[in-house]
């Protein structure tokens, strides 16, 4: 910033005029770049996302999801398959998608690299650029499953899709990764003792090499709920619910202090990566692909209540939105996808599996969140025609089923590209164009 000041010291009025013209021209170019940038780029700081599962017989159409996301202030969504109707619904909304590659596709992708080209043509390329696809998540929790053929196919399938994206010049735009269950850890407590299961190391080490080479994130599904349910006497409920007032737990080996169980789980993964692959540990980022708390469950699942679910998910959103890292990685902002958008009545297993949603299928909230995400978490408005116009049947109040005492109840009033902000961008573009004309004259 010293250059503009020093150049004004040139002798004579003409030299000062030339200097000022140079300064204003540089400023105009910078403003022009900002004014012409898409609105979604202005919200790239978004850290909180949500999982949109569709294992239900009574779920609304994908167009109905958009007002719910806007009401929450969430513009990052993880899908579990590349359903065309869903991908079309998100077109021109600015919502950033992580698109799942189903387990059943892995064998073909691993066996024939050419099949990745076909898979991308069918499930990705035809939706670009209107639909904002940021990553492909190949399989889900494959390494902790019992299908050995699927485990062997995981990395080859990931590499096949990444190679196909490289040929298309899309590898910098779309990452390829996979999501792991926290059960990949053989040791998780204390976090500094975190280590992967020895039987999984032959698969995890090459995956870490891949992440380091491609700068793709290591995704983990982290649920303090399960840890608390397994050991309610050994884990304090407030520690599992991420309550800010809880005293926390020290790590006796590292001396680091852990205020809640979620960041302890993430750091256990970081320590496991360092133990398995020192080189990868320096560059691989851990992101939370799923985290949540059920609002209901079996009679024995006493912690699965609406009150606990509201506390956990509100605290998780607040923790992530603050942009802070973990005790081990304080400079790396935590990123997380809440699980899940809807209760899904066709999921198998314990009753809690069907009760992770923030919303009921009719769009009404299962419980009220105590935390409201900041505006810059949303990516809505990244393209023309944002907003579906779809509304749930009801009394015409148009809240998208998300009530919070009358604050920001409209579909679009927390959008990063509301009518007002769009007007500001148009004004900025016009002003910059005028400034450039004046400067040229």
Automatic annotation (TrEMBL):
Which GO biological-process labels does this protein carry?
A: carbohydrate metabolic process
Gene Ontology MF terms: glucan endo-1,3-beta-D-glucosidase activity
Q: What class of enzyme is it?
A: hydrolase
Q: Which UniProt keywords apply?
A: Glycosidase, Hydrolase, Signal
**Has the keyword Acyltransferase been applied to this entry?**
no
Family classification? Belongs to the glycosyl hydrolase 17 family.
Query: Which PANTHER family does its entry note?
Result: GLUCAN ENDO-1,3-BETA-GLUCOSIDASE BG1-RELATED-RELATED
Q: Which InterPro entries match?
A: GH, Glyco_hydro_17, Glyco_hydro_17_plant
Protein name stated in the entry: glucan endo-1,3-beta-D-glucosidase
The record lists the catalysed reaction(s) as: Hydrolysis of (1->3)-beta-D-glucosidic linkages in (1->3)-beta-D-glucans
Give the highest taxon in the source lineage. Eukaryota
Question: What's the EC number here?
Answer: 3.2.1.39
Q: Which is a Pfam family this sequence falls into? A: Glyco_hydro_17
Cite the Gene3D superfamilies for this sequence.
Glycosidases (3.20.20.80)
